[in-house]
Amino acid sequence: MSTTTAIQATSHWDTHLLKKYDMPGPRYTSYPTANVFDKNFDAGDYRALAAKTHANISPLSLYVHIPFCENICYYCACNKVVTRKRHLVRPFLDHLEQELELRGALHKKRRVTQLHFGGGTPTYLDPAELTELMHHIGTHFNLDNTEAREFSIEIDPRTISKSTVALLKGLNFNRISIGIQDFDPLVQRAVNRLQSYEMVKGLTHAIRRHNYRSLSFDLIYGLPMQSVASYADTMDKVIELQPDRIACYNYAHLPERFSSQRAIDRLQLPNGGEKLAMFQYIGERLLAAGYDYIGMDHFVRPDDELAIARKDGRLQRNFQGYSTCLAPDLIGLGPSAISQFNGSYSQNHKDLETYYQALDENDLPIANGCTMSQEDHLRRKVIMNLACQLRVDIPAIEQEFGIVFTSHFKKSLINLEPLSEDGLVIVGPDEILVTQAGRMLIRNICMAFDAHLTEQSQQRFSRTI
Amino acid sequence: MTLGQTDQRCPHNYQVSCGNCRLNSICLPIALETVEIEQLDDIIQRGKPLRKGEHIFRENEVFGSVYAVRSGSLKAYRITGDGKEQVTGFYFPGEILGMDGIGRNRHASSAKALETAAICEIPFERLGDLSTAIPTLQRHFFQLMSQEIAYDQELITLLSKNSAEERIAALLVSLSARFSLRKLSPTHFRLPMSRTDIGNYLGLTVETVSRVFSRFQKTGLLSVDNKELAILDPERLRTTAGIRVTTESR
Question: Which site among A162, A173, A203, A204 would you substitute to test the B interface, given the most B Cβ atoms closer than 10 Å to its Cβ?
Fold first, then answer.
């Protein structure tokens, strides 16, 4: 398929162009992006919006953030608490149950078709705690029980037994994602995450035995000690284990923001050119092994729901990356979790103490958020069309929002000119098309339409390559 | 007759309290303080023993309680789409039944006594209230529930992937482990269920069950005398069950 050309096309790039587009930028899991959320958005705003959505019968997606980890992985930029103090789980579960009760009362009637446990490390919770948590979710929300549900959980191979794989199936999870990152022990040591291939292979075998619908691997490129040559062995192993989905993330080295990243030796990091070469190599290997390229960082088997959804124009992008449009509204639970519904985004308090405090006062633990303006809706539509469909239908947008595209987006179209000259995007009278080469730089293309992006705010983001 | 005069060792005695029940180290009261055991004891209802063939609850009945087995044994079963009985589990003293009703508020299976059995009924709502006051009780309850769920899934996998020998060996290994937990012999025990129930549970014909038992006897794995069974080579039985695949833990 076309992606081979996309990935090959980029290999002909000169370093000048490469440097030009290697800049900090959002991943567009939301628009507006989380950094522009407003502290004045509070629980009252959320309640008012929830009260207005009662007529909405579309199903819900739930995200549950479990912040605990046993060990620190140096590269990690997620909101987490690294601890071996198991007694910290009890107050966490008690508060999470309270949040479930508060949110459940607001959203209860709607069916939950998508559920995702992320972290931190969801499997930091032991079998009894996982069972309890699912019991509470089922008490306060209407969990779907059909085959079409997508209930997924991130697991850490180092903290899970094979009987937990059986338990998770019994708790109605049908998708598992495993954080692999890299199989090379040298890289694993450099990032403090040691997990053998045999461990992952055994786990993969158990997951297949229990008939999970989908197994996903997360990989990271751009880690210390990595190179194309070192990654060849990791790719052999990944392809041998045949996951259904593969997300390969670009490591963002931002030690001034994430203190654990200071443990990573900057001199051991591959440079931008090497990182691009690694992404190209990963793409070539996966395409040769029969995977489809979904966009940004996602590869899936051709029969996977995401591949089908992309062909049908039903692909969406939210905080969990790409997903099908099964449930457009997302309710996030737990510290730092983001909710997205009825034209709003809102984020929970990040640190446990503040999160607990709000719930102790019987209040939703919301730290900030935003109510989208009409302009935000318009720009989100354009950006998500680019990221998911690789195409913007100009007359359709004009009709839906009652604008004249060329005059409304005058500044954006000027921003787009250099990208167009470099062959990343084709701007026609009726459509904007992302080219094969542009697919890998989709974040840069979306940035042209981001009205909230300022040079100052841009510095907070990871680099696009 | 006062409580002090009753024979507290009699397994069918329905006046036995959690505090002096010999099963309290494997049943719900595990890890509870004396005062807490008394609180738990207060909500538990004990009726007359069930006779063989009597039901505790039936599929689709409204769920209100979970049940602990104090003596005897039971089987749980469902009625399949074509009206046939499908055995879904066997339960022994100290084990809890009925937890599959929690999710949908209706019992997902029926439970029938395989022999005379004494049961403790634990009203679920009151257990929930009590759990709020006694976190260790709640924790233990969810632990039991998670074991039950994982066990069910392992069984489903066993039935879908494994040979008749592997299935029967896995059942015997499981029974042996459960008897051992009750300080009973892990190698010499009586099978309370019929060959038909075993076959039904494991998705095998009764002929296959008998054939595998004969083969196991011939190869020196077991000796079988009707319902009395002796495991002669526990290590080989575990290997046959492929136990490392299904129940390996960290």
Answer: A162
Is residue B195 within 8 Å of B201, Cβ to Cβ?
A: no
Query: What is the rounded CA–CA span in Å between residue A359 and residue A440?
Result: 42
Paired sense of beta strands A431-434 and B55-57, if any: unpaired
For residue A323, which amino acid is it? S
Report the C-alpha gap between A190 and B100 in whole angstroms.
46
CA angle, residues A428, A431, A434, in degrees to nearest 5: 90
Of A131, A138, A209, the CB nearest to B146: A131
Q: CA-CA distance, B18 to B14, in Å (whole number)?
A: 11
Average pLDDT in chain B? 87
CA of residue B215 relative to chain centroid, distance: 27
The three-state secondary structure class of B74 is strand
Mean predicted confidence (pLDDT) in B223-234 = 94
Question: Which pair of structure tokens corresponds to residue A58?
Answer: 């579309």
Pairing, β A68-69 against β A81-82 = parallel
Q: Are B149 and A163 in contact (CB under 8 A)?
A: no
State the sign of the Cα–Cα–Cα–Cα dihedral A3, A8, A9, A13.
positive
A20 φ/ψ angles, rounded to the nearest 5 degrees = -60, -40
3-state secondary structure of A380: helix
User: Each residue of B48-90: pLDDT tens digit?
Assistant: 899 999 999 999 999 999 999 999 999 999 999 899 999 999 9
Say if residues A295 and A439 touch (Cβ distance below 8 Å).
yes
- Chain B residue numbers with beta carbons less than 8 Å from the beta carbon of A131 are 142-143, 145-146, 149
Predicted confidence (pLDDT) at residue A297 exceeds the cutoff of 90: no
Q: Is B206 on the interface with A (CB under 8 A)?
A: no
Query: Is B142 near chain A, with CB under 8 Å?
Result: yes
pLDDT at site B11? 58
Chain A contacts to B (CB-CB under 8 A): 90, 127-132, 135, 138, 160-164, 166-167, 169-171, 206, 209-211
B144, B29 contact by CB (below 8 A): no
- Mode of pairing for the β-strands spanning B74-79 and B110-113: antiparallel
Contact: A128, B145; criterion CB under 8 Å: yes
Q: Which residues of A touch B147 (CB under 8 A)?
A: 127
Residue type, A29: T
Sorted by sequence, the CB contacts under 8 Å of residue A465 that are 6+ apart come out as: A18, A21, A22, A250, A272, A275, A276, A279, A441
Among partner residues A131, A169, A206, which is closest to B145 by beta-carbon distance?
Answer: A131
- CB contact at 8 A, A68 and A80: yes
Q: What is the C-alpha to C-alpha distance for residues A160 and A200, in angstroms, rounded to an integer?
A: 10
Q: Which secondary-structure segment (H or E) carries B208? A: helix B206-218
Which tokens go with A231? 């990654």
Mean of pLDDT values over B179-201? 93
Q: Is residue B4's pLDDT more than 50?
A: no
Question: Which of the residue ranges A9-18, A269-278, A353-362 has the most confident prediction, judged by mean pLDDT?
Answer: A353-362
Counting Cα atoms < 13 Å in the Cβ hemisphere of A137 gives 29
Return d(Cα A435, Cα A412) in angstroms, integer.
18
Report which residue type is found at A188: Q
A166 contact residues in B (CB cutoff 8 A): 149-151, 153-154, 157, 246
Instruction: Please give the interface size between A and B, counted as residue pairs whose CB atoms are below 8 Å apart.
Output: 65
Cβ contacts of B135 on chain A, cutoff 8 Å: 90
Closest CA to B118 of B87, B73, B88: B73
pLDDT tens for each residue of A406-459: 999 999 999 999 999 998 899 999 999 998 778 778 889 999 999 998 766 666
CA distance A60 to B113: 43
Burial B107-139 (b: 16+ CB within 10 A, else e): bbbbbbbbeebbbbbbebebbeebbeebeebbb
